[in-house]
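Hey, quick one: can you model this chain's 3D structure?
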Amino acid sequence: MKTQTIQLVLLIGSLLLTSVSRSQEKFPEIKVSGCPCCWDGKDFAKAMKGIQLFDFGSDGEAQEWAEKICTASGLPMNFSISASNVPNAVAMMQGRKRVILFNPNFMAKMDNSSGTNWGSVSILAHEIGHHLSGHTLDEGGSRPPTELEADVFSGFVLGRLGAELDEACAAMKTMPDVGSATHPPSSARVVAITKGWKNARNQDKKLGTIAQTKPDDEPIPQQTVKRQPVERDIGLNGGGQQFPQPQVQQAPQPLARIVLMNNPNVLVLTSCGQIVAVDQLGQVMGIFGIQSPPAMAGMAWDIQTSTGRMGVNPAGQIIASPGLGMPPGVVGYITGVQ
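Sure thing. Here's the predicted structure for all 338 residues.
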């Protein structure tokens, strides 16, 4: 009995010390750098003026959704995510570290007001889109074109994750239809989300699959192309332009699938170096471009089209180069042929 009493006293003492330790826990203060991309379009600096910003760490659900979103996009998770006392949700830089901060209370209220749990997921996907597209590296901060790109990304991944169109747009439809110098009106953003959602569904429809059945749909590591090309007119996009093209010694075979966020076509890289669009039966509908040796440093090979080049890095990510009508950054990935 005496031994049991001593053990009980020691246990209570241990619990009291743990409680005191936790009560004295300090959450790290966040120092804002750059121009954060805030979801609702409000001026982040003005909203947080005189307010200390704290990092409360992430929760399992938010972390899980962030991982699902990245998996659906085929791109690696290049950021951390934490709960914070921000007004809603924001993608920002902390020095050289990419961070997403979200207000759990705002997310819960958004799910309630939008009538679906996809509301908060769409917001998180939008902020993730800023980081994966390289927007937060731009010192100019938010601008309408980059916000619409992040909205297209949000619609794309929600479409791949199984959300219906009205669910993907639900959160945005709760916002007033008023634009600003940094953010377009909500009506325009709904159109962008719809475009991304339809792109995802068109891809899945042509492939005869949905995102949930493709857990291994991730970028494939790439080797540097060093082939010696010959000249051949392949008439890209009907333009009849001359491009370098490897000689074909045998019937071309599909090697990999090319997924571009803003292109609904099913694109396949073949063994002869052509990149073709195919239908549901795998029949070639047209030539999109060719595989060529890399022109940009750090790339394994290039996708050369009639309008320019996109680099493919060793991790299998497709990087847009200047002159393609889009900001440089990750625009797609290389994955396996199913």
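One thing worth noting: The first helix runs from residue 2 to 23.
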